[in-house]
Specification:
This protein is an alpha/beta fold. Helices cover 38% and strands 15% of the residues. A 5-stranded mixed sheet has the order 3-4-6-5-7, sandwiched between helices. Helix 4 packs parallel to helix 5.
Length: 176
């Protein structure tokens, strides 16, 4: 994505910055201290030399912070493994799991059946990260409205889904 497009997206979402309008203390803390954390982490220097474009590295740093916050035990294999591993050294990667703590999918590669399969392997503590939500807007809206999902965060480049049913269902747009 070129610089002008990224700038336009950021400007359009400016009023969704830094947790403005988020009433839940838990959701506000997640936005402020995980999604939009700007303090340098110990692994950022190493991540700056990873292959990929600027967006890949930006998402990788986000995934590092999420892994650091969530501390998953098992995840599916994916292209961001070094970032996940830097955030949580105990995580193990496999190609098939019975249960997901944390899972990342790309909308361009997923079908409805695969999404239902993921829904069957999550619980109230699971987190789903969906990349490319604006490439498949209808599916992202279906995920937001689904009765199995709870709080969702639309970061434009990706979406984050929580499945905790004890929390009030909300859909947030966040400038990332």
């Amino acid at each position: 994505m070129n610089l002008l497009t990224r700038l336009w997206v950021w400007l359009c979402r400016l009023h969704h910055s830094l947790g403005f309008g988020i009433q839940s203390p838990t959701d506000y803390a997640f936005v402020r201290y995980v999604i939009n954390e700007h303090w340098p982490y110990y692994a950022y220097q190493q991540m700056n030399h990873s292959p990929g474009d600027a967006l890949h590295r930006k998402l990788g740093r986000l995934y590092f912070r999420i892994a650091n916050w969530r501390q998953p035990t098992a995840m599916m294999r994916d292209a961001y493994e070094p970032f996940w591993k830097a955030g949580c050294r105990k995580v193990r990667f496999t190609s098939d799991l019975e249960y997901f703590d944390l899972v990342r999918i790309d909308m361009s590669n997923q079908t409805e059946g695969e999404l239902d399969n993921i829904y069957n392997k999550v619980d109230d503590n699971s987190v789903l990260i969906v990349e490319g939500i604006y490439r498949n807007w209808a599916t992202w809206h279906r995920i937001e409205k689904d009765s199995k999902t709870g709080v969702t965060f639309d970061l434009y480049y990706c979406g984050i889904v929580f499945f905790d049913k004890k929390r009030h269902k909300m859909n947030y747009k966040v400038n990332f």
